[in-house]
Amino acid sequence: MSCMVTRQIRVNGLVQGVGYRAAMRKQAQALGVSGWVRNRADGSVEALAHGAAAAVEALIAWARRGPPAARVADVRISDADAAVVHPGFELRPSA
């Protein structure tokens, strides 16, 4: 059995208006990662990812690149509480 982890991901750069959230959701679903993604008022994208350690790490690696139109400048990762994760990967309203 693989180790399950939960990570908070904050992505800065040209990441809004370029399909970043939808692309991250598709990538998370393909990896079997649950959680959510949303735009932030400061222009960043925030996500919560929960799943097998290798799958979450793969999603973080993808987040550092993003979809083709994105220009990722910085990605910050922190541990998060798994209690707030629901099945699936949802697009949340901006915060």
Chart the SSEs and their pairings.
Elements (H helix, E strand, L loop, with lengths): L3 E11 L5 H12 L2 E6 L5 E8 H11 L7 E9 L9 E3 L4
Parallel strand pairs: 2-5
Antiparallel strand pairs: 1-3, 1-4, 2-3
Helix pairs in contact: 1-2
Protein traits:
95 residues, alpha+beta, Alpha-Beta Plaits, 5-stranded mixed sheet, 2 helices, 5 strands
Helix content: 10-25%
Tell me, rounded to a whole number, the average pLDDT. Answer: 95
Pairing-aware structural class of the strands and helices?
Answer: alpha+beta
Distance between the termini: 35 Å
| SSE order, one letter for each helix or strand | EHEEHEE
Note poorly predicted spans.
none
- Gross morphology: globular
Biggest sheet: strands, sense, closure? 5 strands, mixed
CATH topology: Alpha-Beta Plaits
Count the E strands: 5
**The first-level CATH class name:** Alpha Beta
The fraction of residues in strands falls at: 35-45%
The CATH architecture can be named as: 2-Layer Sandwich
Could you tell me the radius of gyration in angstroms? Answer: 12 Å
Spatial strand sequence of the major β-sheet: 4-1-3-2-5
Q: How many helices in DSSP terms?
A: 2
Number of separate structural domains: 1
